[in-house]
Amino acid sequence: GDSVTQMEGPVTLSEEAFLTINCTYTATGYPSLFWYVQYPGEGLQLLLKATKADDKGSNKGFEATYRKETTSFHLEKGSVQVSDSAVYFCARRANDHDDKIIFGKGTRLHILP
Amino acid sequence: NAGVTQTPKFQVLKTGQSMTLQCAQDMNHNSMYWYRQDPGMGLRLIYYSASEGTTDKGEVPNGYNVSRLNKREFSLRLESAAPSQTSVYFCASSRRGRNYEQYFGPGTRLTVT
After folding, report:
1. Which among A73, B41, B44, B84 is least buried, having the fewest CB atoms inside 10 angstroms?
2. What is the full per-residue pLDDT of chain B (113 aa) written as tens digits?
3. Any chain B CB within 8 A of the CB of A42?
4. What Cα–Cα distance (Å) separates residue B14 from each residue in B47, B60, B80, B82, B112?
5. Torsion angle, CA of A22/A23/A26/A29, rounded to 10 degrees?
6. Whether B98 and A34 lie within 8 Å, measured CB to CB
7. Is A45 on the interface with B (CB under 8 A)?
């Protein structure tokens, strides 16, 4: 069925390292795509989104590009900080007739000082 | 704006007890959601409400009931709690439309013994 697959964690990096978290999706059509972040003890919050193919979402130094050819939406950041330690969720709009979102299982990121 | 608020933050129940989780949003959103988050499982949708007076089952509705009291409030009820319902519960809301993200509350951590 339609789903979102993201790389398993935890991912551990040193401060200032380059980050990539892979995300691929299956879907009919071109759904809106999202990255959410969950800091410890908090709810999810939107990090960035892309609503059509080839769009690039960006926020707080993070970027992701909607690649319809590879059905991917990989999250990248050039230089991570300790404060980026969190769980990251890739997600896609479920369908065209309601507002549901399908979430990936999440990737935990640890940044070492 | 407070955004999405949830009460309580923590709760411990004994097997068979009942309780209601409360959720309210002040963003005039039509759509509201209840999710549960379990380790390794990501977020799973329990129930969804597209508007006041309407509710739909999500991926894991068994053992739960919901009530969309008005546009602001969406409650989740456990009639007879079971240990399998130990989880973190999140409420979310969103505007109607394919490009809009969901806004999450801070969560309720529920333990059923």
Report:
1. B84
2. 789 999 999 999 999 999 999 999 999 999 999 999 998 778 999 999 999 989 999 999 999 999 998 999 999 999 999 999 999 999 999 998 777 889 999 999 999 99
3. yes
4. 23, 21, 9, 8, 5
5. -120
6. no
7. yes
